[in-house]
Structure formats: C-alpha cells, structure tokens
Amino acid sequence: MVSQAIEAGINLFDTANNYGGGRAEEFLGRALGSRRSDVIIATKLGARTGPALTDAGLSYRHVIASTEASLKRLGTDYIDLLQLHVPDPLTPFEETARALDHLVQRGLVRYVGYSNLGDWQAATFLATQRQHEYAPFVSAQMYYSLLGRDIEYGVTPFLRYEGLGLLVWSPLAGGFLSGKYTREQPKVSDGRLTSFDYLSLLLIDREKGYVVVDKLRDIAVTHRDATPAQVALAWLLAKPYVSSVIIGASKSEQFADNLAATNLSLTTEEIEALDTLTEPKPLYPYKWQASGGDHMVRQALGMR
C-alpha cells in the first residue's frame, strides 16, 4: 500500500511512536526503503510508550528520547514533521518548545507541529516559541469531518490567522462516513467501529450520522461511480484551510476508493447543503465574534 500511495503521487506518510507499540514506524521505514528521500515522514510523540512514569508526556527528556527512538525505528536520520501528539498539563510550554528547537538545531527534525491542542494552548505555545526564537509550529493535525466540525469554532480561525497548515485525521469519522454502517446493519464484521467505540470517543450522534450518510449517498448518485466516502473527503478537500487529509485505509480497495476523491469536484450547492446539514450549533463567545464590529461600518464595507 505504501508503494501504491507513492505511485499515485502521495508523498506524506503520518505515523506515531505509540502506534502498534512502535511497530508502525518500523514497518513504514522498511516499506519506504530507498525511497525515503522522496517522501515526507510525519510522526508524533507524547503519548505513553512504556511502563515508567517518564515514558509519556512532553518533558525535555521524553521529547528528545522519543525522537531518537523514532529515528531508529524509521531507519532515517531526520524526521520531516515532528508533532506533539497530546497535551501535557504538567510540563511548561517553554520546556517542550526548547526541546523541539534543540532537535531542529541538531538537524534531526525539519519542522514541528502539534495535534489535539486547544486553540488557546496552541496560541500560547506559538507565542512562547516566538518569544524565545525557537522553531515555531507550522501545522496542526486535528480531527475534522462532516460529523465533527468543532474546530471551526476557534481552531481553524487561529490557523488561518497564523498561516499554519491543517492535517485532518479521521476524515471519515472512524469509517462511519464510508456508508457501510446503516440503521439496518449498525455493525460490520471488518469495521473499526465494531471493535472500538470510536463514535463515543469523537462525541458523534449515530442517528445524525445516518442522516448525513443518506445525504452523501444522494450526492454520490449524481456523480458517476462516486461513493459516500469520496463525497465526504471531497467536502474536506474543498475547504481552503485544509492542507492535507490523512486516510487510514486498511485494504488496497479502500485506498483506491479514497484516492478517487481527489478527482471529485462538488458543486457549490452540494457543499452548501452539507455545510447546512452539519453546521455546528451556535456557541458563545464564537457566535458573538462572528458578527462583531459596528453594524454601520460593516454595511458600508459590504460585509455580511
């Protein structure tokens, strides 16, 4: 599948040091082999990787040790994008930022990013990096899908303001938006949601999910040979603040289906229909900020 991805023009591979107890990095490094310089490797650290108290978190010690271990498993001498996997409330931002900068200065890491931080955490961390002239964040890897648009409240405005890229994880909500889960057949033998309650983790309303999948099917019918998964991915790719979408296909057929989404162009009406159907509920203070500014000035400038 790695070869299939490279042949299709994909050059970004995302993993983490705790996936499969580190074996995911080993397999990726082995599969890339001599083609390593042709691709971008993104990995993550911070989640627990061992039994010791120090085998988790974003301390200077753990960040350095985890990165050096990832380099060995990946069989490479540098990581293109190193990302903080989870927040660490016990370690000061300055300490973690110093560790990341040290890795960049040593040439072991090219760029740094984060995953799953709140907007205030990311903004404060970035300010700390700039204050000390450390290597700054360039990207955020966040959960985003038609069934999970919470990052539109504060995260995406922050990313757009700062010019950071957005990598989307679980774009199909754990496979639910593939369309293989239905009201009549809520469980699938080879589906991820059957063995792991991903929907609860992502705070997804299953009934609302069925309504969204029905709409995806309707739109797919209007596009020859399209599938619900392709429509869901095409909706994400149409967002101007989305830099890349991380797909987690486990079969070559799934990969080929997902890849076809890059050739699917949704109409403005179809995008608006999906936007309206899944629009996040108004939330203070974001709702107020969206309509901020003097109404006369906004009207004079032609602003909505």
Would you kindly provide a written description of the structure presented here, covering whatever features stand out?
It is built from 14 helices and seven strands. Strands 1-2-3-4-5-6-7 form a seven-stranded parallel beta sheet, with helices on one face. 42% of the residues lie in helices and 12% in strands. Helix 2 packs across helix 3 (60-74) and helix 4 (93-105) packs across helix 5. With 304 residues, the protein is an alpha/beta fold. The N and C termini lie far apart (47 Å). Helix 5 links the parallel strand 4 and strand 5. The longest helix has 17 residues, at 206-222. The chain is globular and about 50 Å long. The chain has one domain (2-300): NADP-dependent oxidoreductase domain (TIM Barrel, Alpha-Beta Barrel), CATH 3.20.20. The chain has helices at 2-7, 23-32, 60-74, 93-105, 119-131, 155-162, 192-195, 198-201, 206-222, 228-237, 252-259, 268-277, 286-290, 295-300, and strands spanning 12-14, 40-45, 79-84, 109-115, 137-143, 165-169, 244-245. Residues 1-277 form the NADP-dependent oxidoreductase domain. This is Oxidoreductase.
